[in-house]
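The freezer alarm interrupted the setup, so I double-checked each line after restarting. Inputs confirmed:
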Amino acid sequence: MSSLSKPWLHIRLPVLESFRSYLNAPVLPREKKYLASLPVLIAGALSFQLLSGLVLSLFYNPADAFNSIQFIDRSVNYGWLIHAFHETGATMMFGAVYLGLLRSLWLRNYKAPGELVWFLSLAKFLLLLLIGYLGYVLADGAVSFWSLANAIAGAFSLSGVPGGIGVWFFGGPDGAGTLPRLAVFHAVLAVAILGILLLHQAARRGMEPTVARGVGLHPYYTSQIFVAFVVYALIFAVLVFFAPHFGENPLNRGPANPLVLPVTVTAPWYLLPLSNAGHVFAGVWGSLFAVVARIALLAALPWLDRSAPGNPPGFLHKFLVFVLALDVILICIWAVQAPSFIGGILLAFFTAYFFFHFLVLLPLTTLLEAR
Amino acid sequence: MAETIGEIVQETEVLVRRDFLKILNVAAGAVAVGAIAWPFIDALNPTRDALAIAQPIVDVSAVAANTALRFVWMGTPIYIRKLTPKQIADNQFVVTSTLPDPASYSDRVNPGYESFVVVIGLNTGTPCELLGNDPADPRGPFDGWTCPCDGSIYDPLGRLRSGPASKNLAIPKFTFLNDAQIQFG
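Predicted 3D structure, all chains:
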């Protein structure tokens, strides 16, 4: 093929040629599941968050955060809609992230040779949690103000490396400089996570078995992704227009008051699976331990799972993953209730079950089923 | 033979239907993309309160003849001066070619509201705010404005008569809504 027969742009931008072969090369297996397009949906949701966040950042003023958000909601043209896009976008993105994590637990594709994909998806999850938390405190409502104040006080009370990192991150006691710094972190990390998404996608592509007579990404999988996107967009639209504050503590809609502590200081729903720890583990070290321990459990999955690579997941395993999902949902439900005796016991029980699943049930069942 | 024609008709129908679906989908997609993009684009437009500040309406009914109202708009002082019949008569028929920056009476006032002169009250040479809004201010030989910094002299229409400056006073963008109200912007 002479270079003259190529399109004008492709001669001048050779990278387009490799992009086209990436799209069209007929090497992918047929009939992948719809849920396999979740990472693409997450990338799309993140781009949408960046766009709506860009518009919000033009009007957001960290020195007068709560009032500037009121200004966005009331005065900026379509500001209420962009704000709802951003909030609901976070809900939808975390929905996709949690669904993807559950799918990984279910299919056990964290086992070798999928560990790197698993670690990258965990890194993505953790960064998104951090960005989500920062976005939550940027609202500067009655609840998130106290959440931030507690976090900073906690960081200052810790000794050693964890305290040093915390103090370094928040840059001093809760004051005039805190929210501007966190606003920049929120935005910069949100852009930086695009890099992790690209790495994750490349690692996933590397894991795909190459098929001799397969199908191309385009148009076979692009149309599948499009269908998944339409479903995603429908749910998104319903939430934006009918439940724009889904999963938030309604008390956070009031302005922050440093002298009044709200009845419940609870994060948005997507932070609850990790942030309920204060009820169960006492003290700052306890909360820190609970978060780090749960992340460590997820990261240790390739070794906690004793099954042989390529072993299909058995019925018992699937059932236990289902119970684990239920357990996490129950943790979230009980974490947002006002503190009570029963609630405390139930939360402790559900949290204990979470650890029990990963440390005892998972290794045992996978050993059993590997036989 | 009949079957072949029937097949051709069927295939054509399938094609027509597919074309129709394609057009329908692309059209609906374009509408959806536009509906999503519109709030993002419109959000960057100025808010209504910012526009209201940028396009203020000034009440000039209380401006007495031979005085001027001073009003700051977008950081520059605006002078709204009501002329006396004598000032109009003195300046109406000046031969424009004798002026440093030739402009006729009708160039400086709005038709129907000839007694009002609306100018930016900054000297066009050294940028100083002019004196002469109040009858007690130094107004110079033409009963207009003078510059306290470089001594330029303007007549009541805001035309330059003498001085280091070389231009007439600038006229801001405004419209008379009625006898009593001027909207800027």
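Quick read of the result. The two ends of chain A are 55 Å apart (CA to CA).
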